Amino acid sequence: MGAVVDYKVLGQELFDALASGQAIDPLTAKYPDLSIDDAYEISLAFLDIRQKTNGEKVIGKKIGVTSKPVQEMLGVFQPDFGFLTDAMLAEDGKVYMDCHIAPRAEAEIAFKLKKHLKGPGVTPADVIDATEYVQPCFEIVDSRIKDWKIVIGDTVADNASCGVFVLGAQKVDPSTINMAELEVVVHKNGDEISRGVGSSVQGAPENAVAWLANTLGAYDIPFKAGEIILSGSLVPLEPVVKGDKMSMSINGFGTCDVEFV
Fold first, then answer.
1. Is 47 part of any domain?
2. 17 lies in some domain
């Protein structure tokens, strides 16, 4: 029989790592039999501490590790999922590096909901119908696990390795575009570093959002009207340091910029 998993203790360890900027050993090193359900319970404990200690409020959800380039980079071959809080939204487009451990930037599409959604049975068409608008987005992921040595249990427990996110100004009705055909071009410090397409995210970003709605529905967690849903990176993750500037543009869709200070 494996060791008993204390969700609150491990949630506190992740919170302490977040607060101190000091990463911890992989949870799955101590608990090799850690299940997805266990990891999710740890993430809820982590979130609860953030809410009670920092006063953070949930404003959305995220899916990650959805595209093949990201899966191969991390060695994690199934999507993760987590919560977004108001403290994670960098409204001024600036990411303060003293609050991060080993940040990496990814370009993706954010969905702003106008209707509730709850799985099971949510389809991509339901996602489009429930979405008020979509926006270009940089998510800055950051692992509280040392050296990004993660498997799926580690990243789910660690709130899907979420750090902060930045939204572009443009807001587009998703029913007017084919998101599978969207192409993103990412620049770092003036140089193009990557390109990606919407179809790299489970065939289309709305497919990933539907998967997340159904996955969280199994835990009795709904998407709520007004929430922001991040649909996963279209490109490989890019390590960043203080002083870096990044930009992304999506054809016919919009742009987003982020500065690391």
1. no
2. no
In the structure encoding, which two tokens stand for residue 141, read together? 């992921």
The phi and psi torsions of 237 (rounded to 5 degrees) equal -70, 145
Q: Which amino acid is at 90?
A: A
| pLDDT at res. 70 | 67
Distance CA 76, CA 237 (A): 13
Is residue 16 one of the residues assigned to a domain? no
User: How many Cα atoms within 13 Å fall on the side-chain side of residue 146?
Assistant: 8
Domains contained in the chain, number: 1
Domain hosting residue 155, numbered range: 58-260
Separation of alpha carbons 79 and 63, rounded Å: 7
Task: Evaluate if pTM is beyond 0.70.
Answer: yes
Residue 5 lies in a domain: no
Helices 7-20 and 36-54, packing angle to 10 deg: 50
**In the predicted model, is pLDDT for residue 256 greater than 50?**
yes
Q: What is the CATH number of the domain that holds 115?
A: 3.90.850.10
Q: Token pair 């080993």 is at which residue?
A: 102
* Residue 165 and residue 135 in contact, taking contact as beta carbons nearer than 8 Å: no
Calculate what percentage of the chain has a pLDDT beyond 70: 95
- 21 exposure class (CB count in 10 Å sphere: 0-12, 13-18, 19+): middle
Q: How confident is the model at residue 1 (pLDDT cuts 50, 70, 90)?
A: very low
